[in-house]
Specification:
The protein is an alpha/beta fold. The chain has helices at about 15, 20-30, 45-55, 70-80, 95-105, and strands at about 5-10, 30-35, 60-65, 85-90, 110-115.
């Protein structure tokens, strides 16, 4: 296992699925899939879309809570990255994923973002 894992931000999985491209590669290569919910056990549309396109058996699924996604999520992700796990985090539309990835990067981890369905709409 690596000394530190890599964070992969997966943006917009509900718009075009995840087949092909970097998003699929990052999800397949990750040890864990993290996703945002408001309450424990809540359904995540982005995760549902990923499940429709990819087999997630053997992946650790991790709920992150929406209260303050940038700060709380960054520390939760850092613990997994410190253990050497690569983590793909499903970023819901409208969330400040550059802020989350930036915080994780400033903590000393590699963070990469992949868009599903092409470039981000302005």
């Amino acid at each position: 296992m690596k000394a530190k894992g890599t964070l992969y931000g997966i943006a917009r999985p509900g718009r075009a699925g995840v087949s092909g491209g970097h998003a699929e590669e990052f999800i397949r290569g990750s040890d864990a899939i993290a996703y945002f919910v408001a309450v424990p056990g809540e359904r995540c549309e982005g995760l549902d879309e990923v499940r429709r396109g990819l087999d997630l058996r053997g992946k650790r699924l991790v709920e992150l809570f929406r209260g303050d996604p940038s700060r709380d999520a960054a520390h939760a992700l850092a613990r997994m990255l410190d253990a050497g796990s690569d983590v793909a985090v499903i970023m819901p539309d409208g969330w400040d994923w550059p802020d989350l990835c930036g915080r994780v990067s400033r903590m000393g981890y590699e963070a990469v973002v992949a868009y599903c369905g092409g470039p981000r709409a302005a």
